[in-house]
Amino acid sequence: MKDFSRRRFVLGTAAAAATGALAGCSGNGGGNGNGNGNGNGEGNGNGAAEGPEARASSFLGDNDANLYEGSLEDMTGEDEVTISVGAGDNGFSFDPSGITVSTGTNVVWEWTGNGGAHNVVSEDGSDYEVESELTDEEGYTMEQTIDEAGALLYVCVPHRAQGMYGAVAVVDE
């Protein structure tokens, strides 16, 4: 009987200590911040990235987008750019995954026919609405010309879990 009571005491003490430790992590303690700012001038104090390029980069990084290596491909000044749909070794990528273009650029998504059926659908938080049909047809295209600065954040819905995310940052030149 003593072993049972001692075990109960040890378990109860450990649970109380863990609860106390976690309680210290749950609030901001009335201090000078709550951990939401990133301190590098890219946030607005609540963790949200500002500007089309910061928002696009954050979206791709937060979602572990395939083929995204930490920076957007600069395609400013181009009249038209093409993004491959169904790129990469397994066909579950947009290539390039993230780009920066000037306002007025015509963006063309072109299907490779690899990786099964894909679509391009804007995500919550995107400044623009896009939605293509779901297709695996090689050579199928969808176009969008964007005349105002902002961030187009999109995904292939069937391959979201495989990291098929893309973004277009549109900037004024």
**End-to-end C-alpha gap:** 79 Å
What spatial form do the alpha-carbon principal axes imply? globular
Q: Biggest sheet, in brief?
A: 5 strands, mixed
Structural class: alpha/beta
Beta strand count: 9
Looking across the biggest beta sheet, what order are the strands in? 1-4-9-8-6
Helix content: 10-25%
Mean pLDDT: 81
- The stretches of 5 or more residues where confidence is low (pLDDT under 50) are 1-47
**Beta fraction of the residues?**
25-35%
H/E element order: HHEEEEEEEEE
Number of helices: 2
Q: What gyration radius follows from the Cα positions, in whole Å? A: 23 Å
In brief, what are we looking at here?
With 173 residues, the chain is an alpha/beta fold. Helix content is 21%, strand content 25%.
